[in-house]
From TrEMBL:
Keywords: ATP-binding, Kinase, Nucleotide-binding, Transferase. GO terms for biological process: thiamine diphosphate biosynthetic process. It comes from the Eukaryota. This is Uncharacterized protein. GO terms for molecular function: ATP binding; kinase activity; thiamine diphosphokinase activity. The keyword Transferase applies.
Amino acid sequence: MSFEWSLPFLEPGSGQSSTKHALIILNQPLSLRLLQKLWNASEWRCCADGGANRLHDELATQEVSSADDVRTR
């Protein structure tokens, strides 16, 4: 069995959609480039199952002043 995902909202220049997207970050590897695309395309975001730790670790590699706040929330 195989699946095919249609993710046009991640394509550059796809325009604004009336569909609202949510992002749940789990404790799984995720490339920073993909994370940025998903983050920007989502209206609502949350972390679960260690996802805040994963987000903290990714933000720590970037110049973000509030990266340390992620682990304590």
